[in-house]
Amino acid sequence: MTNPGGLAALWSLDRDVAFLNHGSFGACPTEVLRHQAALRAEMEAAPVRFLGRELDGRLDAAREALAAFVGAEPDDVAFMANATSGVNAVLRSLTLSPGDELLTTDHAYAACRNTLDYVAGRCGARVNVAAIPFPVASPDAVVDAVLATLTPRTRLALLDHITSPTGLILPVERLVAELARRGVETLVDGAHAPGMVPLDLRALGATYYSANCHKWLCAPKGSAFLWVRRDRQAGIRPLTISHGATAVRPGRSRFRLEFDWTGTQDPTAWLTVPTAIDFMGGLVTGGWPALMARNRALALAARELLCVAAGSPPPCPDSMIGSLAGVILPDSQTMETGWRVRDPLQGRLFDGWGIEVPLMRWPAAPKRLLRISAQLYNSPEQYSRLAQALRDELAAERAR
Where are the domains of the chain? Predict the structure, then answer.
């Protein structure tokens, strides 16, 4: 494998900042962005040819490459702008009745939890939340918490494959199987999964799966997908109803026709996904399995270092960690709350130390969790720098 310093040069990230927050928005290598720029140039040189005559074939090719990577049939995959859009498309397509129940966990991504509440509120349904112990001792505790929250009226469970606020890999294979045995459908929010953990959607058995390509696959922003089991595709509609609702094309399902064209937009992020898969897989000897293993090993080593600096135990076993990891920080009475409001410590780490890393309000304000990411451009030295910064800043907080 090329040394990490050499790999960092493949991204256009600010060299003066230790970017330890790949998990929020991803970061796209310059070579992949160049490919997207070339596609955009083609599109702008001949918009009608590109969008009107060639786009279907280009989308088919991109879908085949993505489907092969995630273990799916291409016809079951629809491109989306982001994973939250896919979750919205499913939830807002459901026909619910008063008294129906939807299930999720208290580690769910806030935007998707908002969608659950919105959909339930429209029709008198109810959202039940499984409280997962945190710190969590084992995947068994997750399974037990979810199954204990089921009722005979549970219609669907929204499960995170990898939790955004806490960086836990949930045992979705076991959960999907247990819920299916009880007649409950599953929508998996896999926003962080492609490129972090191996995926085989055929084997997983979920009803719906929504995920991003712009995070750990390092594709351009605006690239994501929704996978829908074949027997449920007729009932799932895109967020924008357009020409595909009535169009007829030989060999194309209504699902494909509706999701492939929802109006004029820039499709180049989707078309660049195969390039991102090939490019990233070619950076490490051993391809994607080795890349995922490298990132996981770095995240685990960094977590150990940072837990010592913060004076807190690891909040979950190693088996529940991929390339995201959480570190529990001491309580603070100065932490503000609200969407996109930075913890003062997060601001000091960036402004004073040049470190970009998120702090989460978990499990409830003013308690805090620092979440690190590990991608090929990161190095052990960056986490050592963060550990020193944490020691100094937490000592300063205690002295105030």
Answer: 4-20+286-399, 33-278
The pair of three-digit structure tokens given for residue 319, joined into one six-digit string: 């088996």
4-20+286-399 belongs to CATH 3.90.1150.10 = yes
Please tell me whether the peptide bond between 250 and the residue prior to it is cis, using omega within 30 degrees of 0: no
| Residues across the chain | 400
Q: How many CA atoms lie within 13 A of 137 on its CB side?
A: 4
CATH 3.40.50.1970 applies to domain 33-278: no
Whether 191 contacts 212, CB under 8 Å: yes
CA pseudo-torsion sign 305, 306, 312, 318: negative
Instruction: State pLDDT tens for residues 13-50.
Output: 999 999 999 999 999 999 999 999 999 999 999 999 99
- Give the Cα separation of 286 and 134 in Å (integer): 35
Burial class (CB in 10 A: 0-12, 13-18, 19+), 47: exposed
Amino acid at 263: G
Q: Are both 4-20+286-399 and 33-278 of the same fold?
A: no
pLDDT of residue 362: 77
d(CA 48, CA 36): 18
Tell which phi-psi region holds residue 354, choosing left (phi > 0), alpha (psi between -120 and 50) or beta.
left
Name the token pair of 354. Answer: 């040049």
Transcribe 334-389 into DSSP letters.
Answer: S---STTPPPHHHHHHHHHH-EE--EEE-SSTT-EEEEEE--TT--HHHHHHHHHH
Residue 340: predicted pLDDT: 63
Residue 335: the pLDDT is 57
Confidence of residue 342 (pLDDT cuts 50, 70, 90): confident
Tell me, yes or no, if the pTM score tops 0.85: yes
Give yes or no for residue 1 having a pLDDT over 60: no
Which whole number is the average pLDDT over 232-254?
A: 93
Is a pLDDT exceeding 90 seen at residue 70? yes
Residue 193 near residue 215 (C-beta atoms within 8 A): no
Tell me the chain's radius of gyration from C-alpha atoms: 21
How do 77-80 and 368-373 pair as beta strands? Answer: unpaired
